[in-house]
From TrEMBL:
Molecular functions (GO terms): adenosylmethionine-8-amino-7-oxononanoate transaminase activity; pyridoxal phosphate binding
Lineage, top ranks: Bacteria, Pseudomonadati, Pseudomonadota, Alphaproteobacteria, Rhodospirillales
Sorted UniProt keywords: Aminotransferase, Pyridoxal phosphate, Transferase
Protein's organism: Hypericibacter adhaerens
Keyword Transferase: yes
Superkingdom classification of source: Bacteria
InterPro entries referenced in this protein's UniProt entry, alphabetically: Aminotrans_3 (IPR005814), Aminotrans_3_PPA_site (IPR049704), PyrdxlP-dep_Trfase (IPR015424), PyrdxlP-dep_Trfase_major (IPR015421), PyrdxlP-dep_Trfase_small (IPR015422)
Record PANTHER family: ADENOSYLMETHIONINE-8-AMINO-7-OXONONANOATE AMINOTRANSFERASE (PTHR42684), BETA-ALANINE--PYRUVATE AMINOTRANSFERASE (PTHR42684:SF1)
Listed cofactors: pyridoxal 5'-phosphate
A GO biological process held by the record: biotin biosynthetic process
Pfam families noted in UniProt: Aminotran_3
Record family assignment: Belongs to the class-III pyridoxal-phosphate-dependent aminotransferase family.
Protein's name in the database: Aspartate aminotransferase family protein
Amino acid sequence: MTANPVDFDASPNNLEPFWMPFTANRQFKKAPRLLVAAKDMHYQSHDGRTILDGTAGLWCVNAGHARKEITEAVAAQLGKLDYAPAFQMGHPGAFQLSNKLTQMMPDFDHVFYCNSGSEAVDSALKIALAYQRAIGQGARTRLIGRERGYHGVGFGGISVGGIVSNRKVFGPLLAGVDHLPHTHDLKRNAFVRGLPEHGAELADQLERIVALHDASTIAAVIVEPVAGSTGVLLPPKGYLQKLRAICDKYGILLIFDEVITGFGRLGASFATEYFGVVPDMITCAKGLTNGVIPMGAVFVRKGIYEAFMNAPENTIELFHGYTYSANPAACAAGLAVLDIYKREGLFERAAELAPYWEAGVHSLKGTKNVIDLRNLGMIGAIELEPREGKPTARAFEAFLGCYEKGVLIRTTGDIIALSPPLIVQKTHIDQIFDTIGKVLKTVN
């Protein structure tokens, strides 16, 4: 693997100025793990080692690293048009990308752009509230999320999200938010391959919430079809179908947060295709540009956009947007990525590899401290028994051990989460699970 051509110092002499996100800063800066180059399935570390990427970066590098087609498309766009405002102006790339995306998602006919999954969630929540008002249902202001849900780090996202550490120090958050119970039932569903058999009835808790608040006050429900960042929590069979039916019954919008499950992660274009359940909006990011340039989007189902088009023609219909909405370079990256997905059949490839991946995940059954294994598509999770008095410590030691042995994994709490680039080979899958198995045997 060649070194990064940009003349960066591989070992900066002062790590302190960078306040790192979601990181134990003091621990990291004592023993930094720096990535200086990447190609296909691998990173190169600052100390010259090759690291197999078992997490597609942060669930985003679905087509593999340093794809020439994306680099060239972005470079060409920057040389021609580096920036164009999206307020009262446009550029061709934004419309080209939107057409390709809506062709991929035939139940959705409009796309709203932002810069991240967090912004996509906040945008979808605002669109939901504004839509209810536009159709004469302005009293519908409540938003319903789910325990252990992750919807980014904006105030809207952490309000409907349900990960305690992401919420507890930031005050009361948005008012009028309630939460469904999460779907993780370790007692009944441990070591199940694919979707759990038990728990579809958890969707009926939405009926309880409706009875408490009255449907006339509820604008939208937002869930991840598969909850990723909290540790890969899978929907029980029939659960999403029940949510859709209840939302339809009461006129509540259903939003799928597909920032992780979008663009082939489950072996289909999106989870909506995989499960056969069509929400009213979908949020996405990550795989949209292969992680190359920040970009997020909201897919809007037919009819929602039209509800805003009743004002006089010269007036702004939705007072929302971002300086970098539909950034030209991001659109160029997105177009190149969609071409790769289609040309190389990466969604279909993920579906074909899923059984081999599943076997790899479940090969760890019986390994020391492993209390559950979960998988769906090209996602996997290994749940470890927490160390008494030291939650998260056991998984973090496994993370460090795997990194030292040349495999990058991700941990959340005491759960190892895995999501390789969709170009992964069977030999890579073998290496991932062989390495994790060896490391876990050494972790007390």
